[in-house]
Hints:
Radius of gyration: 24 Å
CATH topology of the largest domain: 2-enoyl-CoA Hydratase, Chain A, domain 1
Distance between the termini: 105 Å
Mean pLDDT: 94
Number of domains: 2
CATH superfamily of the largest domain: 2-enoyl-CoA Hydratase, Chain A, domain 1
Number of helices: 9
Helix content: 25-40%
Largest sheet: 7 strands, antiparallel
CATH architecture of the largest domain: Alpha-Beta Complex
Structural class: alpha/beta
Oligomer: single chain
Amino acid sequence: MPVNPIDALSGRALYAAIWQRVKDSFFDQARLAAIDWAGQEHRYDAKIVDDAAAIRFAKKSLRLLNDKYTCFLEPEQVVAKAADRVSEELLVANKVMEGDIGYLGIISFSHADIAEQVRERLEGIAHCRAFIVDLRGNTGGLVNATANALEYFIDSGDICYSDHPLGAKGLEERFIYFKPDQFCVLVLEPGVEPDLSFYLRKPAMIAGKPMVVLIDGNTMSSAEIFAAALLASGENGSIIAMGSKSSGKGIGQSDFDILGKVTLKLSCSRFYNPAGDWTGDDGQTVNNGIVPKIELVESDDPVAQVRAAASYLTDSLAARASQEALPTPDDARLAA
């Protein structure tokens, strides 16, 4: 069949746009160099006869990235993701447990209203003395919404740091941190004045109280951001993780519309915990998932780990009460 030159030009333009987006935005620029991404730019020019061929050969090139999260999305997937963000599905559960321990389970951070859901559920248990925050199976979601949800837990401190390739311009770096009355975002971009923004934040509802964060191998992405920030905010071991090692997915994806013809989901950012450590790329090359202080054996009974966390908190509260009841040196001097 003769090749239509207009179709061929359209396909080559589409392939070139996909190639350029990966070159500019893929999170691991060193990996691009290692696989000679530059050599893929014109590799299939002679074989691209239309848009369908462009997408087919682009998929071959994308496989070289060895990144399981970078892929093309079907139109129905794009629609479903947009609908999920505004869904009214309830993603947060709460319960007051024996011993005045509050349980908060967060299934996902994928909905735009997740911070509001967290606030509503916390209101019913904020009076409790200690808390279990269950992030098992939470694969993450929207980073900004995740940070907004953390406002109810943390009074002040670093939340997360991320970087995003900007092609030849270098890296954009973004820092999120809290002050008692402000949500702060610092953006650094090469050749541009630092952009420091302050937003009125929600008041912390349970900051400073003992917590156990339940995690497992399916605690991923922004859920790991949430867990790491919580753990960093605890003083003297008041907040610990229990369960099993988290996924180690410290990479974020964005959906890019390419010439109005295809949607590319591309891994285009790295996330770092408050200590500045990269969580990793879900074990593709690096896995720095959160290691719990207390490992728990996985069970068919999902409540077993919740009971173990409650038992730990009950014992911790009792130990603290006993310690506070001991006489201080000042008490001894007054008694004398």
